[in-house]
Design brief:
Elements lengths: L1 H10 L5 H4 L8 H24 L19 H25 L8 H18 L22 H30 L3 H19 L6 H25 L8
Helix pairs in contact: 3-4, 3-8, 4-5, 4-8, 5-6, 6-7, 6-8, 7-8
Amino acid sequence: MTGQTTAGAHTAGTLTAADRITPDAASPRALRACAAAAGPLFVIAALVQALTRPGFNLTRNALSLLDDGSLGWIQAANFIVTGLLLIAASAAVRRAITAGPGRRWAPRLLAITGAGLIGGGIFHPDPSGGFPPGTPQDASAISSWHGVLHQVSGSAAFLALIIFCFVAARRYRACGQRTTAACSVAAGVLCAAGVATGGTPHGSLTLFTGVSIALLWAAFTTTRLITIRSLPWTP
């Protein structure tokens, strides 16, 4: 009878305390730091550059264009380091959760997001939109194979990040955290809206805003996943 009851609970999608995170599976401190730093590092480094690089305007220039010019190595490093941190965080999440919603796809999606960001740092967009200064306004950011691969890498990262927010929401709901689940859905929706409007006037700003919100939410969620042991998951 007990076995039937347990099976019924799992069928309904409700996680027990033991399912929420593997007992004694707390990740090493370095991996916890990776999870916490990935989102804030990217957003802060990008904002500082957007506000200080001569000729760059976030309302009309895509953030990726910071990859170009004599200081482009800074944003390239930002993409690559953030990607590596997310891949490290995905390893921590994979170790931490072994049951319930998201146990397979949460770490995979984090790793895909990280790999996409690394690709965005390796492959640079072509100068466009008047940046770097002297570039024609109508120049295309995907006029070379480097630009195309940058676009593909970024698209893969954004899509994986959006899906991660929804996967996280499903796990939050299974743990009875409905308000937090709603916040996770909102982060995914805002990121998707930013991606969808990226090509519109001022779309570069909405894209940056949506992606930043989703990255910060991913940092919050992964940190919660890998720091709580066998106690109830209560963000």
